[in-house]
């Protein structure tokens, strides 16, 4: 694989309950690319994200991410790899409700010595970086970060999830509908921050969104029906 590739997929296949849902012959994304992934509901967008992060195991094919073949890694190796190198904004957010917003943002550093080292090498505390990220997301009251996440609005929870994905400068950011609960102004802020952060750090960004206003912000657009042979045959899975 070329060292310029962040993502290299070959003959990737996955079926759920006996139904084929992912059949991607080939997909390459270069390091530092800012990519918008779109398609109809059920076309496989979220499933592809989980395959790229190692959260799902394909039935066959090759998935190389940042030069590593995920299909040859153990579950533990994939967990460590994801913690060190990937920032993920889940569609369901996956925030810890018993932790404060600040604790949620800092959580990746606790699982990744690499991310903790990056935060420490900047001679700034992780807490400071968390506040800086939320300031760029226009958090008006910093004290809100001391609240438990289940006490926050859905829009603010999404901001926390975005900051959590960015902390520690991961090499790959996967963002699945990261601003769906926000108004148009706040949505644009989120997309702009994700893209700015990616360009500042030469990070690869893959973002799922149905917001057509975000289209011009991304340099590359990938329609699932163009890469997934089963995108149209399975309306939902």
From TrEMBL:
GO cellular component, as recorded: plasma membrane
Tell me which SMART domains the record gives. Answer: AAA
Record-annotated ABC transporter domain positions: 7-236
- Gene3D superfamilies per the UniProt record, alphabetical: P-loop containing nucleotide triphosphate hydrolases
Q: Does the keyword Repressor apply?
A: no
- On whether Nucleotidyltransferase is a keyword of this UniProt record, the answer is no
Specify the superkingdom. Bacteria
Keywords from UniProt, A to Z, are:
ATP-binding, Nucleotide-binding, Transport
A Pfam entry, by short name: ABC_tran
Looking up InterPro entries in the UniProt record yields:
AAA+_ATPase, ABC_transporter-like_ATP-bd, ABC_transpr_LolD-like, MacB-like_ATP-bd, P-loop_NTPase
Molecular functions (GO terms) = ATP binding; ATP hydrolysis activity; transmembrane transporter activity
The protein's matches in PROSITE patterns, at most eight in alphabetical order, are given as: ABC_TRANSPORTER_2 (PS50893)
- Quote the protein name from its UniProt record: ABC transporter domain-containing protein
Write down the species: Endozoicomonas montiporae
What does UniProt list as this organism's lineage?
Bacteria, Pseudomonadati, Pseudomonadota, Gammaproteobacteria, Oceanospirillales
């Amino acid at each position: 694989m070329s060292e310029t590739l962040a993502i290299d997929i070959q003959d990737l296949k996955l079926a759920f309950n006996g139904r084929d849902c992912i059949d991607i012959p080939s997909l390459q994304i270069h390091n530092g690319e800012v990519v918008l992934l779109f398609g109809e509901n059920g076309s496989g967008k979220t499933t592809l994200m989980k395959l790229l992060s190692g959260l799902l195991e394909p039935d066959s094919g090759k998935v190389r991410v940042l030069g590593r073949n995920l299909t040859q890694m153990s579950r533990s190796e994939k967990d460590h790899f994801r913690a060190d190198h990937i920032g993920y904004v889940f569609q369901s957010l996956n925030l810890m409700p018993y932790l404060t917003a600040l604790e949620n943002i800092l959580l990746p550093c606790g699982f990744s010595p690499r991310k903790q080292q990056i935060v420490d090498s900047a001679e700034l505390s992780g807490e400071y970086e968390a506040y800086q990220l939320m300031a760029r997301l226009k958090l008006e009251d910093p004290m809100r970060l001391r609240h438990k996440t289940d006490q926050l609005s859905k829009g603010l929870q999404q901001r926390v999830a975005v900051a959590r994905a960015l902390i520690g400068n991961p090499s790959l950011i996967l963002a699945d509908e990261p601003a769906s609960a926000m108004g148009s102004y706040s949505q644009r802020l989120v997309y702009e921050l994700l893209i700015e952060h990616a360009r500042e750090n030469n990070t690869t960004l893959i973002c799922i969104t149905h917001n057509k206003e975000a289209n011009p912000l991304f340099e590359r657009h990938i329609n699932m029906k163009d890469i997934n042979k089963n995108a149209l045959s399975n309306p939902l899975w």
